[in-house]
Automatic annotation (TrEMBL):
<keyword id="KW-0812">Transmembrane</keyword>
<feature type="transmembrane region" description="Helical">
    <location>
        <begin position="363"/>
        <end position="387"/>
    </location>
</feature>
<comment type="similarity">
    <text>Belongs to the ABC-4 integral membrane protein family.</text>
</comment>
<keyword id="KW-0472">Membrane</keyword>
<feature type="domain" description="ABC3 transporter permease C-terminal">
    <location>
        <begin position="311"/>
        <end position="438"/>
    </location>
</feature>
<feature type="transmembrane region" description="Helical">
    <location>
        <begin position="407"/>
        <end position="429"/>
    </location>
</feature>
<feature type="transmembrane region" description="Helical">
    <location>
        <begin position="21"/>
        <end position="45"/>
    </location>
</feature>
<dbReference type="InterPro" id="IPR025857">
    <property type="entry name" value="MacB_PCD"/>
</dbReference>
<dbReference type="GO" id="GO:0022857">
    <property type="term" value="F:transmembrane transporter activity"/>
</dbReference>
<dbReference type="Pfam" id="PF12704">
    <property type="entry name" value="MacB_PCD"/>
</dbReference>
<keyword id="KW-1003">Cell membrane</keyword>
<protein>
    <submittedName>
        <fullName>ABC transporter permease</fullName>
    </submittedName>
</protein>
<dbReference type="GO" id="GO:0005886">
    <property type="term" value="C:plasma membrane"/>
</dbReference>
<dbReference type="InterPro" id="IPR003838">
    <property type="entry name" value="ABC3_permease_C"/>
</dbReference>
<keyword id="KW-1133">Transmembrane helix</keyword>
<dbReference type="Pfam" id="PF02687">
    <property type="entry name" value="FtsX"/>
</dbReference>
<dbReference type="InterPro" id="IPR050250">
    <property type="entry name" value="Macrolide_Exporter_MacB"/>
</dbReference>
Length: 448
Protein backbone atom coordinates (compact mmCIF):
# COMPACT_ATOMS: atom_id res chain seq x y z
CA UNK A 1 0.00 0.00 0.00
CA UNK A 2 1.36 3.39 -0.98
CA UNK A 3 1.96 6.04 1.70
CA UNK A 4 -0.66 8.25 0.04
CA UNK A 5 -3.24 5.47 0.33
CA UNK A 6 -2.28 4.90 3.97
CA UNK A 7 -2.97 8.57 4.79
CA UNK A 8 -6.30 8.38 2.95
CA UNK A 9 -7.26 5.22 4.84
CA UNK A 10 -6.37 6.87 8.17
CA UNK A 11 -8.49 9.96 7.43
CA UNK A 12 -11.47 7.82 6.44
CA UNK A 13 -11.24 5.79 9.65
CA UNK A 14 -10.90 8.91 11.83
CA UNK A 15 -14.22 10.22 10.49
CA UNK A 16 -16.12 7.14 11.68
CA UNK A 17 -16.25 8.21 15.31
CA UNK A 18 -15.91 11.97 15.35
CA UNK A 19 -17.14 12.56 18.93
CA UNK A 20 -14.54 10.26 20.47
CA UNK A 21 -11.87 11.67 18.18
CA UNK A 22 -12.86 15.24 19.09
CA UNK A 23 -12.63 14.57 22.83
CA UNK A 24 -9.22 12.92 22.44
CA UNK A 25 -7.86 15.81 20.38
CA UNK A 26 -9.37 18.28 22.87
CA UNK A 27 -7.62 16.59 25.79
CA UNK A 28 -4.33 16.65 23.88
CA UNK A 29 -4.76 20.31 22.92
CA UNK A 30 -5.52 21.28 26.52
CA UNK A 31 -2.42 19.49 27.79
CA UNK A 32 -0.19 21.12 25.17
CA UNK A 33 -1.69 24.56 25.88
CA UNK A 34 -1.09 23.97 29.60
CA UNK A 35 2.56 23.05 28.96
CA UNK A 36 3.22 26.10 26.75
CA UNK A 37 1.42 28.63 28.96
CA UNK A 38 3.05 27.26 32.13
CA UNK A 39 6.54 27.37 30.64
CA UNK A 40 5.87 30.78 29.03
CA UNK A 41 5.65 32.32 32.50
CA UNK A 42 9.26 31.28 33.13
CA UNK A 43 10.33 32.57 29.70
CA UNK A 44 8.44 35.84 30.25
CA UNK A 45 9.93 36.61 33.66
CA UNK A 46 13.38 35.64 32.36
CA UNK A 47 13.02 38.02 29.44
CA UNK A 48 11.80 40.84 31.69
CA UNK A 49 14.67 40.48 34.16
CA UNK A 50 17.29 40.24 31.42
CA UNK A 51 15.83 43.27 29.65
CA UNK A 52 15.79 45.28 32.86
CA UNK A 53 19.39 44.28 33.62
CA UNK A 54 20.58 45.17 30.14
CA UNK A 55 18.85 48.55 30.29
CA UNK A 56 20.36 49.36 33.65
CA UNK A 57 23.92 48.58 32.64
CA UNK A 58 25.95 48.76 29.46
CA UNK A 59 26.43 45.15 28.41
CA UNK A 60 29.96 45.77 27.12
CA UNK A 61 31.12 47.52 30.31
CA UNK A 62 33.59 45.74 32.60
CA UNK A 63 34.37 47.30 35.98
CA UNK A 64 37.94 46.75 37.19
CA UNK A 65 38.36 47.94 40.81
CA UNK A 66 42.09 47.22 41.10
CA UNK A 67 44.74 44.53 41.00
CA UNK A 68 45.56 41.77 43.46
CA UNK A 69 49.29 41.38 43.96
CA UNK A 70 50.62 38.33 45.85
CA UNK A 71 53.04 40.34 48.01
CA UNK A 72 51.53 43.83 48.16
CA UNK A 73 47.87 42.92 48.40
CA UNK A 74 45.18 44.92 46.59
CA UNK A 75 46.17 48.17 44.88
CA UNK A 76 44.50 50.87 42.80
CA UNK A 77 45.08 51.03 39.04
CA UNK A 78 47.61 53.31 37.35
CA UNK A 79 48.59 54.35 33.82
CA UNK A 80 50.61 51.16 33.45
CA UNK A 81 47.46 49.09 33.98
CA UNK A 82 45.49 51.32 31.60
CA UNK A 83 48.08 50.74 28.86
CA UNK A 84 47.82 46.99 29.39
CA UNK A 85 44.01 47.08 29.18
CA UNK A 86 44.11 49.06 25.95
CA UNK A 87 46.31 46.41 24.32
CA UNK A 88 43.87 43.58 25.07
CA UNK A 89 42.16 42.23 21.99
CA UNK A 90 38.64 43.58 21.29
CA UNK A 91 38.88 46.37 23.87
CA UNK A 92 37.18 49.49 22.49
CA UNK A 93 37.92 51.98 25.27
CA UNK A 94 39.25 52.24 28.81
CA UNK A 95 37.78 55.05 30.91
CA UNK A 96 39.51 56.26 34.07
CA UNK A 97 38.31 58.72 36.66
CA UNK A 98 39.62 60.47 39.75
CA UNK A 99 36.96 61.35 42.31
CA UNK A 100 37.15 64.65 44.19
CA UNK A 101 35.00 66.00 46.99
CA UNK A 102 31.47 67.33 46.71
CA UNK A 103 31.70 71.04 46.03
CA UNK A 104 29.24 73.88 45.96
CA UNK A 105 28.79 75.43 42.52
CA UNK A 106 27.24 78.87 42.05
CA UNK A 107 25.86 80.66 38.99
CA UNK A 108 23.72 83.82 38.90
CA UNK A 109 22.39 83.70 42.48
CA UNK A 110 21.77 79.96 42.22
CA UNK A 111 23.73 77.10 43.72
CA UNK A 112 23.93 73.30 43.95
CA UNK A 113 26.21 70.67 45.41
CA UNK A 114 27.81 68.17 43.04
CA UNK A 115 30.76 65.82 42.94
CA UNK A 116 33.72 66.88 40.83
CA UNK A 117 35.33 64.12 38.78
CA UNK A 118 38.47 64.23 36.67
CA UNK A 119 37.77 62.18 33.54
CA UNK A 120 39.79 61.31 30.45
CA UNK A 121 37.42 62.72 27.85
CA UNK A 122 38.80 60.94 24.72
CA UNK A 123 38.17 57.52 26.30
CA UNK A 124 34.79 58.65 27.67
CA UNK A 125 33.79 59.62 24.14
CA UNK A 126 34.93 56.26 22.75
CA UNK A 127 32.91 54.51 25.46
CA UNK A 128 29.74 56.32 24.36
CA UNK A 129 29.54 59.61 26.28
CA UNK A 130 26.93 61.82 24.60
CA UNK A 131 25.94 65.43 25.12
CA UNK A 132 22.47 66.92 24.97
CA UNK A 133 23.91 70.39 24.47
CA UNK A 134 27.29 72.04 23.92
CA UNK A 135 30.65 70.40 23.23
CA UNK A 136 33.53 68.63 24.95
CA UNK A 137 36.09 70.63 26.97
CA UNK A 138 39.19 71.96 25.22
CA UNK A 139 40.74 74.17 27.91
CA UNK A 140 41.58 73.33 31.52
CA UNK A 141 38.92 75.68 32.93
CA UNK A 142 36.10 74.14 30.87
CA UNK A 143 33.74 71.55 32.35
CA UNK A 144 30.90 69.24 31.34
CA UNK A 145 28.00 68.86 33.78
CA UNK A 146 25.50 66.06 34.31
CA UNK A 147 21.95 66.30 32.99
CA UNK A 148 20.42 66.97 36.42
CA UNK A 149 22.93 69.69 37.38
CA UNK A 150 20.72 72.31 35.73
CA UNK A 151 17.58 71.06 37.51
CA UNK A 152 19.35 71.08 40.89
CA UNK A 153 20.27 74.75 40.83
CA UNK A 154 18.36 76.52 43.62
CA UNK A 155 18.35 80.12 44.92
CA UNK A 156 21.29 80.77 47.24
CA UNK A 157 19.17 83.00 49.45
CA UNK A 158 16.35 82.20 51.84
CA UNK A 159 12.89 81.82 50.28
CA UNK A 160 9.64 82.50 52.09
CA UNK A 161 7.82 79.38 50.91
CA UNK A 162 8.52 75.71 50.42
CA UNK A 163 11.33 75.25 47.90
CA UNK A 164 10.46 71.70 46.82
CA UNK A 165 7.27 70.18 45.40
CA UNK A 166 5.60 66.92 46.44
CA UNK A 167 7.96 64.93 44.18
CA UNK A 168 11.03 66.29 45.95
CA UNK A 169 11.96 68.51 43.00
CA UNK A 170 12.70 72.22 43.05
CA UNK A 171 9.59 74.16 42.11
CA UNK A 172 9.61 75.58 38.62
CA UNK A 173 9.56 79.23 39.71
CA UNK A 174 12.71 78.79 41.81
CA UNK A 175 14.71 77.01 39.12
CA UNK A 176 17.54 78.59 37.15
CA UNK A 177 16.08 80.09 33.98
CA UNK A 178 19.21 81.14 32.13
CA UNK A 179 21.31 79.40 29.49
CA UNK A 180 23.92 77.20 31.19
CA UNK A 181 26.21 76.37 28.27
CA UNK A 182 28.88 79.05 27.94
CA UNK A 183 28.19 80.33 31.46
CA UNK A 184 30.96 80.85 34.01
CA UNK A 185 30.27 79.14 37.32
CA UNK A 186 32.09 79.27 40.64
CA UNK A 187 33.44 76.09 42.23
CA UNK A 188 33.94 76.66 45.97
CA UNK A 189 36.97 74.81 47.39
CA UNK A 190 37.33 74.54 51.17
CA UNK A 191 40.21 73.82 53.53
CA UNK A 192 40.78 74.12 57.28
CA UNK A 193 43.61 76.36 58.39
CA UNK A 194 44.29 77.24 62.03
CA UNK A 195 41.01 75.60 62.98
CA UNK A 196 39.10 77.90 60.64
CA UNK A 197 37.35 77.22 57.37
CA UNK A 198 38.97 78.93 54.40
CA UNK A 199 37.18 79.11 51.05
CA UNK A 200 38.43 79.81 47.54
CA UNK A 201 36.23 80.10 44.44
CA UNK A 202 37.59 78.58 41.24
CA UNK A 203 35.99 79.91 38.09
CA UNK A 204 35.15 77.37 35.38
CA UNK A 205 33.05 77.53 32.23
CA UNK A 206 30.29 75.08 31.36
CA UNK A 207 30.75 74.00 27.72
CA UNK A 208 28.57 70.87 27.64
CA UNK A 209 25.66 69.07 29.30
CA UNK A 210 25.49 65.29 29.31
CA UNK A 211 22.59 63.46 27.70
CA UNK A 212 19.62 62.47 29.84
CA UNK A 213 20.05 58.97 31.36
CA UNK A 214 17.92 56.25 29.78
CA UNK A 215 16.40 55.32 33.14
CA UNK A 216 14.40 57.73 35.29
CA UNK A 217 16.00 56.53 38.53
CA UNK A 218 19.53 57.44 37.36
CA UNK A 219 20.57 60.77 38.86
CA UNK A 220 23.42 62.56 37.08
CA UNK A 221 24.71 65.83 38.52
CA UNK A 222 28.45 65.02 38.27
CA UNK A 223 30.79 67.76 37.04
CA UNK A 224 33.65 66.62 34.81
CA UNK A 225 36.68 68.82 35.49
CA UNK A 226 40.19 68.79 34.03
CA UNK A 227 43.58 67.84 35.47
CA UNK A 228 44.32 71.57 35.53
CA UNK A 229 41.41 72.20 37.90
CA UNK A 230 42.55 69.28 40.08
CA UNK A 231 46.02 70.82 40.27
CA UNK A 232 44.56 74.16 41.43
CA UNK A 233 42.48 72.38 44.09
CA UNK A 234 45.49 70.46 45.41
CA UNK A 235 47.69 73.59 45.46
CA UNK A 236 45.10 75.43 47.55
CA UNK A 237 44.23 72.61 49.97
CA UNK A 238 47.74 71.12 50.16
CA UNK A 239 46.16 67.66 50.17
CA UNK A 240 45.83 64.97 47.49
CA UNK A 241 42.54 65.17 45.56
CA UNK A 242 41.54 68.15 47.73
CA UNK A 243 40.80 65.97 50.75
CA UNK A 244 39.84 67.90 53.88
CA UNK A 245 41.75 67.40 57.09
CA UNK A 246 39.94 66.89 60.36
CA UNK A 247 39.72 70.37 61.97
CA UNK A 248 40.15 68.70 65.38
CA UNK A 249 43.30 66.91 64.24
CA UNK A 250 45.16 69.21 61.85
CA UNK A 251 48.40 67.22 62.16
CA UNK A 252 46.75 64.07 60.81
CA UNK A 253 48.73 62.55 57.95
CA UNK A 254 46.67 61.91 54.83
CA UNK A 255 47.54 58.96 52.56
CA UNK A 256 49.73 59.78 49.56
CA UNK A 257 47.98 59.29 46.24
CA UNK A 258 50.11 58.99 43.08
CA UNK A 259 49.15 61.38 40.29
CA UNK A 260 48.41 58.51 37.90
CA UNK A 261 46.27 56.52 40.33
CA UNK A 262 42.57 56.18 39.46
CA UNK A 263 39.50 55.62 41.61
CA UNK A 264 37.29 54.16 38.88
CA UNK A 265 38.37 52.26 35.77
CA UNK A 266 35.99 50.68 33.26
CA UNK A 267 36.94 48.58 30.26
CA UNK A 268 34.57 48.58 27.28
CA UNK A 269 34.53 45.65 24.84
CA UNK A 270 33.80 46.04 21.13
CA UNK A 271 30.79 43.72 21.42
CA UNK A 272 28.98 41.57 23.97
CA UNK A 273 30.62 38.35 22.72
CA UNK A 274 34.08 39.72 23.58
CA UNK A 275 33.26 40.42 27.24
CA UNK A 276 33.78 36.82 28.34
CA UNK A 277 37.27 36.55 26.78
CA UNK A 278 38.35 39.92 28.17
CA UNK A 279 37.19 39.12 31.72
CA UNK A 280 38.95 35.74 31.51
CA UNK A 281 42.22 37.42 30.51
CA UNK A 282 41.85 39.98 33.29
CA UNK A 283 41.28 37.21 35.82
CA UNK A 284 44.39 35.35 34.66
CA UNK A 285 46.44 38.48 35.36
CA UNK A 286 44.98 39.06 38.86
CA UNK A 287 42.54 41.81 37.87
CA UNK A 288 39.19 41.16 39.54
CA UNK A 289 36.34 42.42 37.39
CA UNK A 290 32.60 42.67 37.17
CA UNK A 291 30.31 42.92 34.17
CA UNK A 292 26.59 42.61 33.62
CA UNK A 293 27.31 39.45 31.61
CA UNK A 294 28.46 37.76 34.84
CA UNK A 295 25.17 38.71 36.45
CA UNK A 296 23.20 37.46 33.47
CA UNK A 297 25.07 34.14 33.57
CA UNK A 298 23.74 33.39 37.07
CA UNK A 299 20.26 34.59 36.09
CA UNK A 300 20.26 32.41 32.98
CA UNK A 301 21.30 29.30 34.94
CA UNK A 302 18.56 29.87 37.51
CA UNK A 303 15.84 30.44 34.91
CA UNK A 304 17.01 27.47 32.82
CA UNK A 305 16.34 25.26 35.84
CA UNK A 306 12.95 26.93 36.39
CA UNK A 307 11.92 26.58 32.73
CA UNK A 308 13.03 22.95 32.63
CA UNK A 309 10.93 22.25 35.73
CA UNK A 310 7.86 23.95 34.24
CA UNK A 311 8.25 22.01 30.98
CA UNK A 312 8.53 18.79 33.01
CA UNK A 313 5.29 19.59 34.87
CA UNK A 314 3.58 20.37 31.56
CA UNK A 315 4.84 17.08 30.12
CA UNK A 316 3.00 15.23 32.89
CA UNK A 317 -0.25 16.75 31.58
CA UNK A 318 0.54 15.45 28.08
CA UNK A 319 1.28 11.99 29.50
CA UNK A 320 -2.10 12.02 31.23
CA UNK A 321 -3.76 13.01 27.94
CA UNK A 322 -1.94 10.14 26.22
CA UNK A 323 -4.08 7.72 28.23
CA UNK A 324 -7.05 8.95 26.18
CA UNK A 325 -5.08 8.39 22.95
CA UNK A 326 -4.21 4.86 24.07
CA UNK A 327 -7.86 4.17 24.84
CA UNK A 328 -8.99 5.61 21.48
CA UNK A 329 -6.49 3.57 19.51
CA UNK A 330 -7.32 0.36 21.43
CA UNK A 331 -11.02 0.79 20.64
CA UNK A 332 -10.11 1.58 17.02
CA UNK A 333 -8.28 -1.74 16.70
CA UNK A 334 -11.27 -3.59 18.12
CA UNK A 335 -13.77 -1.81 15.87
CA UNK A 336 -11.70 -2.24 12.73
CA UNK A 337 -10.88 -5.90 13.23
CA UNK A 338 -12.79 -6.90 10.06
CA UNK A 339 -10.88 -4.29 8.01
CA UNK A 340 -7.61 -5.56 9.44
CA UNK A 341 -8.64 -9.13 8.58
CA UNK A 342 -9.43 -8.15 4.99
CA UNK A 343 -6.10 -6.32 4.67
CA UNK A 344 -4.27 -9.38 5.92
CA UNK A 345 -6.27 -11.68 3.66
CA UNK A 346 -5.23 -9.73 0.55
CA UNK A 347 -1.59 -9.84 1.60
CA UNK A 348 -0.99 -6.61 3.53
CA UNK A 349 2.33 -6.51 5.34
CA UNK A 350 2.03 -6.42 9.19
CA UNK A 351 4.44 -3.46 9.15
CA UNK A 352 2.01 -1.56 6.93
CA UNK A 353 -0.87 -2.24 9.32
CA UNK A 354 1.27 -1.11 12.25
CA UNK A 355 2.26 2.04 10.38
CA UNK A 356 -1.38 2.92 9.65
CA UNK A 357 -2.32 2.91 13.34
CA UNK A 358 0.82 4.82 14.30
CA UNK A 359 -0.07 7.40 11.64
CA UNK A 360 -3.51 7.76 13.18
CA UNK A 361 -2.15 8.28 16.69
CA UNK A 362 0.36 10.78 15.27
CA UNK A 363 -2.48 12.63 13.54
CA UNK A 364 -4.32 12.97 16.83
CA UNK A 365 -1.22 14.19 18.65
CA UNK A 366 -0.11 16.70 16.03
CA UNK A 367 -3.58 18.16 15.48
CA UNK A 368 -3.99 18.50 19.25
CA UNK A 369 -0.55 20.12 19.51
CA UNK A 370 -1.37 22.61 16.74
CA UNK A 371 -4.68 23.60 18.35
CA UNK A 372 -3.07 23.77 21.79
CA UNK A 373 -0.32 26.07 20.48
CA UNK A 374 -2.85 28.49 19.00
CA UNK A 375 -4.83 28.48 22.25
CA UNK A 376 -1.59 29.07 24.23
CA UNK A 377 -0.73 32.13 22.14
CA UNK A 378 -4.23 33.51 22.71
CA UNK A 379 -4.00 32.93 26.47
CA UNK A 380 -0.53 34.51 26.55
CA UNK A 381 -1.84 37.64 24.82
CA UNK A 382 -4.81 37.88 27.20
CA UNK A 383 -2.56 37.42 30.25
CA UNK A 384 -0.07 40.08 29.16
CA UNK A 385 -2.87 42.52 28.38
CA UNK A 386 -5.28 41.79 31.21
CA UNK A 387 -3.16 40.84 34.23
CA UNK A 388 -1.56 44.30 34.66
CA UNK A 389 -5.05 45.83 34.63
CA UNK A 390 -6.26 43.31 37.21
CA UNK A 391 -3.25 43.99 39.47
CA UNK A 392 -3.79 47.72 39.18
CA UNK A 393 -7.53 47.55 39.90
CA UNK A 394 -7.49 44.83 42.57
CA UNK A 395 -4.33 45.72 44.48
CA UNK A 396 -3.78 49.36 43.55
CA UNK A 397 -0.20 48.60 42.46
CA UNK A 398 1.36 49.63 39.16
CA UNK A 399 3.29 46.72 37.59
CA UNK A 400 6.87 47.53 36.52
CA UNK A 401 7.05 49.10 33.07
CA UNK A 402 7.84 46.57 30.37
CA UNK A 403 7.11 43.54 32.58
CA UNK A 404 6.25 40.47 30.46
CA UNK A 405 4.20 37.86 32.31
CA UNK A 406 4.08 35.36 29.46
CA UNK A 407 6.48 35.01 26.54
CA UNK A 408 6.42 32.17 23.98
CA UNK A 409 9.63 31.84 21.96
CA UNK A 410 9.51 29.73 18.79
CA UNK A 411 11.47 26.98 20.57
CA UNK A 412 8.70 26.38 23.12
CA UNK A 413 6.01 25.24 20.62
CA UNK A 414 8.71 23.18 18.89
CA UNK A 415 9.58 21.45 22.17
CA UNK A 416 5.88 20.89 22.84
CA UNK A 417 5.34 19.37 19.39
CA UNK A 418 8.27 17.00 19.87
CA UNK A 419 7.13 15.92 23.36
CA UNK A 420 3.54 15.47 22.18
CA UNK A 421 4.60 13.51 19.09
CA UNK A 422 6.81 11.13 21.09
CA UNK A 423 4.13 10.58 23.74
CA UNK A 424 1.41 9.90 21.16
CA UNK A 425 3.66 7.49 19.25
CA UNK A 426 4.29 5.57 22.47
CA UNK A 427 0.55 5.64 23.24
CA UNK A 428 -0.33 4.18 19.86
CA UNK A 429 2.51 1.66 19.75
CA UNK A 430 0.87 -1.04 21.84
CA UNK A 431 -2.52 -0.90 19.99
CA UNK A 432 -0.64 -0.89 16.65
CA UNK A 433 1.29 -3.99 17.65
CA UNK A 434 -1.95 -5.64 18.68
CA UNK A 435 -3.43 -4.85 15.26
CA UNK A 436 -0.64 -6.83 13.56
CA UNK A 437 -1.53 -9.92 15.64
CA UNK A 438 -5.23 -10.01 14.75
CA UNK A 439 -6.23 -13.46 13.50
CA UNK A 440 -7.79 -13.24 10.02
CA UNK A 441 -10.61 -15.79 10.60
CA UNK A 442 -11.61 -14.37 13.95
CA UNK A 443 -11.47 -10.87 12.58
CA UNK A 444 -13.83 -11.80 9.79
CA UNK A 445 -16.24 -13.23 12.36
CA UNK A 446 -15.81 -10.06 14.58
CA UNK A 447 -14.49 -12.12 17.50
CA UNK A 448 -11.57 -9.87 18.34
Amino acid sequence: MRLKDQFKFVRQNMKKNRTRLFMTILATAMSVAFLIVLASVGFGLHKSIVKETLERRIVTEIEVPGKEEPNNGFRQLTNEDISYFEEIKDVKAVTRRKNLQNYRFEVDQHQTNAQAVVAHMPSETKAGLELSDGRLPKAENEVVVGFHFFQDLRPNKEVTEELYNEKGQIKEKFRYKGELVGKKISMEVIKFEGGKEVKKPLEVTVVGIRKKPTKEWIYDNVVFVSEGVLKQVEEFTGTPRGMMKDPNNPDMELPAIPADQYDQVNVYAKDMESVKDITAQLKENNYPSYSVINELKDVNVMFTIVKAGLIFIGTIAIIIASIGIYNTMTMAVTERAPDIGIMKAIGANPKTIKKIFLLESSYIGLIGAAIGTLVAYAISFIVNFGLPLIIKQAFGEEPPEGLVFSYIPYTLPLISFIICYLVTILSGLRPAQRATKVDVLRAMRREV
